[in-house]
Every structure is written in C-alpha cells, then in structure tokens.
Automatic annotation (TrEMBL):
The lineage of its organism: Bacteria, Bacillati, Actinomycetota, Actinomycetes, Pseudonocardiales. GO terms for cellular component: plasma membrane. The gene is cydC. Pfam families: ABC_tran (PF00005). It comes from Pseudonocardia petroleophila. NCBIfam families: CydC. This is Thiol reductant ABC exporter subunit CydC. One of its GO terms (molecular function) is ATP binding. Residues 1-38 are annotated as: Disordered.
C-alpha cells in the first residue's frame, strides 16, 4: 500500500471518472467459470471449477481407459495364449499373442503413468486456482471475521483440497470405467451373447448399484466427518492460542476435554467410514465372484460352440472386467464427505461482501470529510448503533470521538475504513460518496488503526513495509521513534525483532504502537485511530499522543477513544453518548 502524495485528493483518476461497470459486490462473489447461485449441488460446482482444464481431464480419462482396457486385454490374450498353447500348435501361431502380451503389459504401465501425470497436473492446477480465489475472497477483509480461526484453517486446507480429491478420484475413474466397460461388454457379447449380457448386468451392479448404495450410506458420515474435522481444528486452535488466558482462569482442563471430545467424535466417524468402505469392497467382490461363476456356467453349457479357447477367454475376460469398477464403491462412499467439504468451501466463496460498491453519484464541491444522517445497525431487528450522526471535518481538522463502550465509536471507524456499509446516510470525502468507490481506493486515502489491528508473524521491519514497501531503514526507525517503540524493541533486535503469531511476542501496548507506526508510515490524508493508546500507561499515552498530533499536523484526524485525557490539543470533541459536540479546550 503506497501513500498518496501530500495534498492529493484521490490516488489515480478522479473518482468522478471511475467506471462502475464492475461493482464490488459482483466482483467479490464467485469464481470465473463457476456457478455463484446457492442451492446447486456442491459436487457439480466443484467439477465446474475444472472446466478451464476440461481437455486435460478428457485426455487423462482416455489414458485411464487405455490402461484399464490394456489390463483386460492382457488377461484375455493370456487366456487365449495358454489355452491355445495346450494344444501344442506351431510356435509361429503363438508369436503374435506373445508379442501382444508384452505390448499390452508395457501399454498398461505407460498409460497408467500418463493418466496419473495428466490428471494430477490438471487437478493440482485447478486446486491452485481455487486456493488463490479463496484467498482473494478472504483478502477483501470482511469475510475473515465471519469464521472462527480454527474452522477457517480447515476450510482453507482440508475443504479446499477436497476439490483435488473429487477431480482425481471421483471424476476420472467413473468416466474411464464407462468407456472401458462398454468395450469389454461388446467383446464378451461377440464371444457369447448370454455371457455378454450377464457381464453387463454384473458391471451395472458392481459399478452403479453398489456405488449408489455406498454414496447414500456415506452421505451422513461424510457430513459428520467434515463437521468433526472443523470442530477439532477449532477446539485445538482455540486451546493453543488461548493457553495463557485459559491457564490463568483455570479453564485449560475444559479446553483439553473439548479437544479430546472432538477427536473422539472424528475417530468414531472415521471408523464408520472404514466400515462403509469395507462393506462396499466386499459387495463389489461378491458381485464379481457371482458374475464370474455365472459366466463360467454359461460358457460350460455352450462349450461345444465356444471351444475350450473361447471358454477361457470368456471367463478370464469377465474376471478382469471387474478391475474397471473396483475403485467406484470407495469413491462413492467418500462423496458425502466431499459434498460437505464443497459446501463449506462455497460458504466462503459465496459469502456476501459486507461492503459493496454502489452506483456512481454526482460529485459535490465539498472539500474534506462530510457525514450526514449516518445510521448503522447490525441486524434488521437490532437497535441503531449510530442513529443520525452528522459530522463535518474540513481538511486538516482534528477531532476526538468519545463516549462509553457500545455507543458506536468503533462502528463509526469501521464505516470510515470501509469495513461495513452505512444502513442509511452518506459519507462524502471531497464531495465524493465513498460507497461509490473501490474500498481499497478509499483505504488509501482514509487509513489508520482499527480496533483490533493485526500483527503478522514476521519481523517488525516486514510489518512496517506493508504500509510502504519502498521505505528505508532510516524511515522505519524514525516512525518507531514517533510512537516511542525504539527503546522497547532494542533488546529483541529492533527492526529485526520477531513479532510471533498474532504479535504474541509483543505486549498489548507494543502491538498497538506498531500498528500506529504502520498507519503513520502509510501517511493517509485522513487518519482514523481507534483506541490507539490502549494498554499504555498515562505517561507513555500522553507522549505518544503528542507525537502523533505533531506528526499528523495538516492532516485530518479522527481519534476514537473512551479516555478523555489529553484531548486539549484537538480542535473538537464529539460525544456520541449524547450526540453533543463540544469544542475541546485549547
């Protein structure tokens, strides 16, 4: 994020000239090439995600069909070769079959390798696209707050990986089985019509009926497994991240018990899944055995017409044919879990944005920040948090917004940061309605420190460079001096100090000051600070506030605080609790 030039109104072209043919709400929704409407089967939607690589998957299915057909043909040729060789014909009569056997063995291995290579490559590329789009959706800021951290990790990893599993195991084997099965049934029918009909019935039972039953039986366990994985991840992350507070309040045993209960639930679901897989494999083997025995009986009855060679080819072809449908029951049993994972994935991708880009509105000749009749609430039946707020901030004006907790101070900051839309009223900056602009463009002009600033697990330098990637170490050190953070960071390495996950290696006051330094480095024209001196002792608070006021001279400043101390240097104090505005003492 780069800072706008001092004195500039908006980065890039003036907002009046901005195009509005791609509203933010439309951009943030689904995936290109994939459905965005809810209500469609998640499995179909996950398959649609692979449409850009449909040709690759078709090639992979063809390679899989060749590999399976080669396996069946290899056994059929071997049956012909062995049964023919028993009659001791001239060796030249067997040479073609010998060469074919070798060729089919090589073809089977090569085709199987190509199938794995092509389908995995296409699936991994599709998975990469999906993962990028998930991150892009979450990077819009607001959806992250709708999911608990552990559950979000599961959605980002396990549920997203379900796309790969579906494409590799749920799409390619059935398609290859359909192509190969038709050819094998045709071959058996050419040898013996009743044998071909019996084999077709057996393949339909083993490749359609048994998988359908497995899919129906696996729907519930799959859904429960997805929920159990999410619960285990959430419980574990909560226990790890909250360990200090849990220990301090004696709640760690309860947190550990929750993790153990979630793990036990997932284990029970996994056992049911394993039982289901075993039953599916057993049913498939039973169908295969009965079909082979039936084919053998039919062949024996027609041996006078078939001959011994034809009988051997017919029976062993039927035996080999069930390699085609062998993977399908296991695939079908997992469809319930894949469907549940897909639904959770699309919960993220379909999450409606908290902020939308509204149609363009006329630009007024009103410099500065102007808020009129601002009304915000958090639900249709909830009370208004902000109800008719009016506020004028000419360029360079610095105000404080004070009041007790719950009166809407942080809500006002969230509206200015474009973290949420107003339910009514307008916010204009230099005469431009901010809701008609791209939220990122607004945040380059209106920036600062939100109520819960995030500190990344990196060095202090890396956290600061997010605000201005081209900043020098001298500039970074100078901004740390402004927020009185140089001395506290010196023992840990200064700019090279590691912040830890969520900034855990820093105290609460140091995290706030680091976020404040990042905001000052970004240098927005309108600076919004939501409780920037929280967790600071009075002496440090007054010094930091004085430095911030000195560093932002000439910039519009909105200071959100519940602490009225040290506000004498500001131009105005807005008391939200009574909607009164009183000039600050000068």
């Amino acid at each position: 994020m780069t800072a706008p030039r001092r004195g500039s109104r908006w980065p890039g072209p003036h907002p009046a000239a901005a195009r509005d043919d791609h509203p933010e709400g439309a951009r943030s929704g689904g995936l290109p090439g994939g459905p965005t409407a809810s209500g469609r089967d998640p499995l179909l939607r996950m398959i649609v995600l692979a449409r850009p690589r449909g040709a690759r998957f078709a090639l992979g299915v063809l390679a899989g069909a060749v590999a399976t057909a080669s396996a069946v043909a290899l056994l059929a040729t071997a049956a012909w070769l062995i049964s023919t060789a028993a009659a001791q014909p001239p060796i030249t009569a067997l040479s073609v079959a010998v060469v074919a056997t070798r060729a089919l063995g090589v073809t089977r291995g090569t085709a199987r390798y190509l199938e794995r290579l092509i389908t995995h490559d296409a699936a991994l590329r599709t998975l990469s696209d999906v993962r990028v789009r998930v991150y892009e959706r979450l990077a819009r800021t607001e959806p992250v707050r709708r999911f608990r951290s552990g559950d979000l990790v599961t959605r980002l990893v396990g549920d997203t990986d379900a796309t790969q599993d579906l494409l590799i195991r749920g799409l390619t084997p059935p398609a290859a089985a359909l192509v190969t099965g038709a050819g094998v049934v045709g071959l058996s029918t050419a040898v013996l019509v009743p044998g071909g009909a019996l084999l077709a019935a057996g393949l339909l039972l083993g490749g359609v009926a048994v998988p359908l039953l497995a899919a129906a039986a696996g729907r519930g366990p799959g859904r429960r497994a997805a929920a159990a994985r999410a619960e285990l991840s959430t419980a574990l992350v909560d226990a790890l991240h909250g360990a200090p507070d849990l220990h301090a309040h004696g709640a760690m045993p309860a947190a550990v018990a929750r993790v153990e209960a979630a793990d036990a639930a997932l284990t029970r679901t996994a056992r049911r899944d394993a039982t289901l897989l075993g039953l599916g494999a057993g049913a498939s083997a039973l169908v295969a055995g009965l079909t082979v025995w039936g084919t053998l009986l039919l062949g024996v009855a027609a041996v006078d017409d078939l001959g011994t060679v034809g009988l051997a080819v017919l029976v062993l072809t039927a035996l080999a044919a069930f390699e085609i449908v062998a993977p399908l029951p296991a695939v079908a049993a997992r469809l319930g879990g894949l469907r549940a994972a897909g639904a959770r994935l699309f919960d993220v991708l379909d999450a409606p944005p908290a902020v939308t880009r509204r149609p363009a509105a006329p630009v007024r000749d009103e410099p500065g920040l102007r808020i009129r009749d601002l009304r915000v609430r958090y639900g249709p039946d909830e009370p208004w948090v902000l109800d008719g707020l009016d506020l004028d901030l000419p360029p360079g004006r610095r105000i404080a917004v004070v009041g007790p907790s719950g009166v809407g101070k942080s809500t006002l900051a969230a509206v200015l940061f474009r973290f949420r839309d107003p339910d009514a009223g307008t916010v204009h900056l230099d005469g431009v309605d901010v809701t008609t602009q791209d939220p990122d463009d607004v945040r380059r002009v209106i920036g600062g420190v939100p109520a819960d600033p995030h500190v990344f697990d990196a060095t202090v330098r890396a956290n600061l460079l997010l605000a201005r990637p081209g900043a020098t170490d001298a500039e970074l050190s100078a901004v740390l001096d402004r927020v009185r953070l140089t001395a506290p960071l010196a023992p840990a390495g200064g700019l090279d100090a590691e912040t830890g996950p969520h900034g855990d290696r820093l105290s609460g006051g140091m995290r706030t000051r680091l976020a404040l330094a990042r905001a000052l480095l970004a240098d927005p024209r309108v600076l919004v600070l939501d409780e920037p001196t929280a967790h600071l002792d009075p002496e440090t608070r007054d010094a930091v506030l004085a430095d911030v006021l000195a560093a932002t001279r000439g910039r519009t400043l909105v200071l959100v605080t519940h602490d009225p101390a040290g506000l004498d240097a500001l131009d105005e104090v807005v008391e939200l609790s009574s909607a009164r505005r009183t000039p600050a003492a000068r």
